[in-house]
Amino acid sequence: MPAGVALARETRVTLLQSSGSIAIAAVLGFAAIVLARRASERIQITLGRAGGAGAARLGRALGILGLLVAATAALALGFYGLLKLFAG
To answer: Which residues contact 57 (CB under 8 A, 6 or more apart)?
Structure first.
């Protein structure tokens, strides 16, 4: 999403047009959560011999953070649209 905002500042692309970065952040956050869950299951199956429990926890935390940032950006974009609509 920061890349989308930077693109909007440096080019003729508007902030609304760069909102595709919100969807990308949501998809990548969801993918991180799914991959972290798979890693945790693999760790449980191998009784911890596979290693990487810390990486799986970090991946899950970053995935949740990505989803929260995407949700916040979507809310901000929605309110921006409402302000533009009712501003006149």
So the answer is: 36
Q: Would you state the pLDDT for residue 2?
A: 73
| 59 CB neighbour count, 10 Å cutoff | 21
4 CB contacts (<8 Å, ≥6 apart)? 15, 18, 19, 20, 21, 22
**Cβ neighbours of residue 28 closer than 8 Å, sequence gap 6 or more:** 66
- The H or E element containing residue 88 is none
| Phi (first) and psi of residue 15, to 5 degrees | -65, -35
Average pLDDT per block of 10 residues along the chain, 88 residues long: 74 76 92 96 88 93 95 90 85
Q: Is the dihedral of CA 19, 5, 24, 36 positive or negative?
A: negative
Instruction: For residues 43 and 59, give the distance between their C-alpha atoms in angstroms, rounded to a whole number.
Output: 14
Please give the Cα distance from 28 to 46 (Å, whole number).
Answer: 27
